[in-house]
Automatic annotation (TrEMBL):
Sequence positions that bind L-aspartate: 82, 180, 236
Protein name as annotated: Aspartate carbamoyltransferase
Recorded family membership: Belongs to the aspartate/ornithine carbamoyltransferase superfamily. ATCase family.
Residues at which carbamoyl phosphate binds: 54-55, 104, 134, 137, 280-281
Entry keyword Transferase: yes
Gene name tied to this protein: pyrB
Species whose genome carries this gene: Luteimicrobium album
Amino acid sequence: MKHLLSAADLTRAEAVHVLDTAAEMAATQSREIKKLPTLRGRTVVNLFFEDSTRTRISFETAAKRLSADVINFSAKGSSVSKGESLKDTALTLQAMGADAVVVRHQASGAPHLLARAGWLDAAVVNAGDGTHQHPTQALLDAFTLRRHLAGDPALGATSGVGADLDGLHVAIVGDVLHSRVARSNVALLTTLGAHVTLVAPPTLVPVGVETWPCEVSYDLDATLADGKPDAVMMLRVQRERMSSAGGGFFPSPLEYSRAYGLDARRLAVLPEHTIVMHPGPMNRGLEISAEAADSPRAVIVEQVANGVAVRMAVLYLLLTGQHDPQSARVPTTTTTHRTEEAHA
Ligand code: CP
């Protein structure tokens, strides 16, 4: 595996291997010195054509914790605004000696084009393309689910190392139509053995969803009460991809919130162990209330923290060729001042 373009490209063994590697990386992050020398001398370019807070910062942190050199490229303020093509941007990055390119683009398929066109030798990591895929988001969600729910006798918490998500029920709720997070999670969580129910108004369910390996419900209250999900993953209503606030997809924000928002009343019907997830950024008061977002069940901030460990794992596995689950080895030696000097 040279690139990470889609969550659907991962086998169960490969996905568990990424999660286990992320667990090793997470363990290094509670040390006083968090930096590993693993990717010293390698260059990671964050190529962001679309806005991001979590993913961009997370990849930058991950690459720096692995001692890689990091170049942050934002389309705003670059020659893209003068009409430069994706090809010429890619050729520039090739000339700069990029070893990995982490790309977010508003166009579905842009990371695949970068990986396949022959413009770059670098590993390409999809950091979210249009409404298509966001594989590292699904991996960090799976990592978070596993930590809280997998391999634990009382569905409480263990590290879950080596485990998949067999038997878990995850409800993914909201704007599925525009969501690369939903598409990535359906692929990855079902590969790992989870049962997924998508819950959305009919207008926000994509054409062809019946071919996806999941159930579809239009009734959030029934799914929460009868399905007793182990996790409820709320999706952001992507108003920027709609023609106006609701864009004709739902009558009004208030009605959407009443039918599909997670609030204190709906939290109260969930099993005690059920966790609440959201990829961020959140529309508080629309798809999730402040009570739900800030409740003890919410693991939303933890998802962000887990994103660093997962992205460290992905960069490490792609750039060192350790992605084969049979032959991998994770370096957990923290950089010390002495090793810094030895490499100077
Ligand atoms: N979850 C996510 O992709 O967030 P950002 O858009 O802030 O990167």
